[in-house]
Amino acid sequence: MMEPRPSGENYQLIVRIARGEIIRGTDFSIEETLVALNDKILVAGAGGFIGGALVSLLRKQGYRDIRAVDVKPLDEWYQRFDDVENLSLDLNLKENCDIAAEGAAEIYNLAANMGGMGFIEHNKALCMLSVLINTHMLQAALKQGTVRRFFYASSACVYNGDKQTTFEAPSLKEEDAYPALAEDGYGWEKLFSERMCRHFREDFGLITRVARFHNVYGPWGTWFGGREKAPAAICRKVIEAKVSGKHEIEIWGSGVQTRSFMFIDDCTDGIQRITNSDILEPINLGSSEAVTINQLVDIAEDIAGIKLKRNYDLNAPKGVNGRNSDNTLIQKYLHWEPSTPLRVGLEKTYRWIFDQYMAREKGEAGVVREAGAGR
Ligand code: NAD
Predict the structure, then answer these.
(1) What are the chain's domains?
(2) Pocket of ligand 1 contains residue 111 by CB under 6 Å
(3) Catalytic pick among 152, 186, 217, 357
(4) pLDDT tens for residues 187-216?
(5) How far lies 234's CA from each of 10, 179, 224, 350, in Å?
C-alpha cells in the first residue's frame, strides 16, 4: 500500500536523499532541507545518549526551533543546550506527549527505558512499559496535524533468537524478525511499536520511519551505573585497571560472543537519512564489522597500552551468541552504511570516558560537557 506522498520538488528531494545523492545539512544548500530550518523539531529522549547527539547535530546544521524532551531532571541530561527548548516531561503520559508534539513538523522518538544486557534482562516489565511512550507519541503526532515525518528507534533485539545461536555472527536481514521470537521484554516492545508505526502510516497516513539500531557507542553515552553497554563498560574496566594498577578485567560471558558496534556519528547520520527516505519498512542501522567481545577488549587494551588478565563470568547476562547487521538493504536504498572503523570510534570513546573517569575521581559531578553546551 502506498502512503500519501509529498508532491513536486519536495518529493524529488526525498528521492535524492534516499539515493544518497545528497546528505541533509552537510553537502547541499541548507535551503533544500525537507524540514525548513525554522520548523519545529521534537527530539524525545533528548536527555539520553542518542537523543542528545541528535540535538547537537541538528543545532550544528542550523535548525533553530528544536524542542528537547526527557523524563530526567534537566541537570541529569548528558548534553543540554541553552538555545533549545528543554522540557522535563514523562512521555508515558498522553497529555505530556500532546505538550511535546505541539506544533512539531518532525518528531524523533528516541525515548525508552533501556540499558545494556544487564538492565534489559532484569527489567522486562519496565522495558515493555515504553510502549506507552511511542503509542501516545503517535497519537499526539496525528492529533497535531503538523507532523510531516515521525521517526521511531527500534533495535536489533527484535530479531528471532533462534537465528542468533551460533557464535559466527549471523548477519541479520530485516526479514529475520519473523516468525517473531524477539528478546524477551525489550525486544517484544520494540517489535510491537514498529508495527504500531506501520499501521499509523497505513491506516492514518502519518509518515513514519523505523530504524533497527545495532549497538551504538561513543562519547556522551552511559559508561557506568548498570545501564552501560559493552563498549563503554569495557573501556571503563580497562581504565579502572590502568589507573588502579590491578591488571585484571572481568568479562561477561565466554568472550567469544560476536557483535557489531556502530559509532554515534554514523547513527545520527543514518537516522536523518532514513527519516528523509522513502523506506517504508523497518531497516537495519548498524555496522557490519563484527567482532568478538575478546577482540573488543584487545582494541581497548591496545588504545590503553596495557595487557590484562581476563576473568570470564559465565553467569553474567550476555545476550545472544552472535549478531551482526546485514546491510544489503540499506546499501540498496541509500547507497550508504555506517562505516566508522571500530578502532577509530573506540579510541574517541575511550578518551572521553577517561576524561569522565578522571573528573569523577576528582569529585566533579556529572559528565564533562563540550564547549558551548549550555549549562
Ligand atoms: P538512553 O537511555 O541514553 O536514552 C533514552 C532516554 O529516554 C533517556 O534519557 C531516558 O531518560 C528517556 N526516557 C525514558 N523514559 C522516558 C519517559 N517516560 N519520558 C521521557 N523520556 C524518557 O538510550 P539511547 O542509547 O540514547 O537510546 C535511544 C533509543 O535508541 C531508545 O529507544 C533505545 O531503545 C534505542 N536503541 C539504542 C541502542 C543503543 O545501542 N544505544 C540500540 C538499539 C536501540
Answers:
(1) 8-217+263-286+324-339 (3.40.50.720)
(2) yes
(3) 186
(4) 999 999 999 999 999 999 999 999 999 999
(5) 45, 34, 10, 9
Cβ 128 under 6 angstroms from ligand 1: no
Tens of pLDDT along 285-327? 999 999 999 999 999 999 999 999 999 999 887 777 888 999 9
- Say yes or no: CB of residue 77 within 6 Å of ligand 1: no
Q: Is 186 a catalytic residue?
A: yes
Q: Are 341 and 289 in contact (CB under 8 A)?
A: yes
Residue carrying C-alpha cell 542468533: 164
**C-alpha cell, 88:** 522535563
Counting from 1 in the atom list of ligand 1, the atom nearest the Cα of 133 is 18
Radius of gyration, alpha carbons of the chain? 20
3-class secondary structure for 233-274?
A: HHHHHHHHHHHHCCCEEEEECCCCCEEECEEHHHHHHHHHHH
Q: Are 319 and 262 in contact (CB under 8 A)?
A: no
> Which residue out of 56, 154, 213 has the highest number of ligand 1 atoms within 8 Å of its CB and is therefore the one to mutate?
213
Q: What is the pTM of this model?
A: 0.89
- State in Å: Cα 7 to ligand 1 middle: 34
